[in-house]
Model the fold of this input.
Amino acid sequence: MRRIYIGDLQGCREELERLLEAVKFDPARDRLHSVGDAINRGPDSAGCVRLLKQLDAVMVLGNHELHWFDVAAGWRKAGKRDTLQSLEQAPDRDELDAWLRARPLLHVERDVVLVHAGLDPRWSDLEATAARLRAALDGALATGHSPWELAEVAFATSVRYCDSEGREPEGDWPPPPAPYEPWDHWYRGARIVVCGHWARRGVVVAEKLRALDSGCVYGKQLTAWIAEEQRLVQVPAKRAWSPVTA
Ligand SMILES: [Mn+2]
Done:
């Protein structure tokens, strides 16, 4: 089996299909893994979720999925740049929404951990952390609370910089001064972390990091990392679907 990890889709369903062709994806022997943010800003959020669901992909939730839960519950209004209509109006909306709600925040494998944005330096037992975050999210969704009220869930899906204690700066741009560093600066775990969320930083391949957000929705590329072949595969975006903002 090959494990194929893909960066932030943000509704770029055509690019996902092209990437599957480029890696010669075989559902009988390959397993697709998504870093989350499969939806929003791009043209076909529903199509992305439908395809991931059909392929029984492993997926962790990103900040845009949490935003969708807020919008769907009426806790937050859709923003100007949101393109969640394809999901709102999908004939299979309930199935797609239920599938998304069942995804984890952290997916821990023997040698790899999948998370949307990053890991808190204080999280040492990642399996216990994954279970705690999942239970917290279930509790929030069941009791009518926004996932954003959960500090650890917000961290996993949105961190870029933090200090050695997991404290985040007020903003990520311009780059904050010391003691803030990109979160992976503090990472000491044994597993390779696969993540997305940071298009401005782009693809990073380091000993313990595969950061795969190459800004497809902004007109750049969609990136896959094939673990068993230790290689990256990229396809170009068909066009810029969303303006880049600072
Ligand atoms: Mn994100």
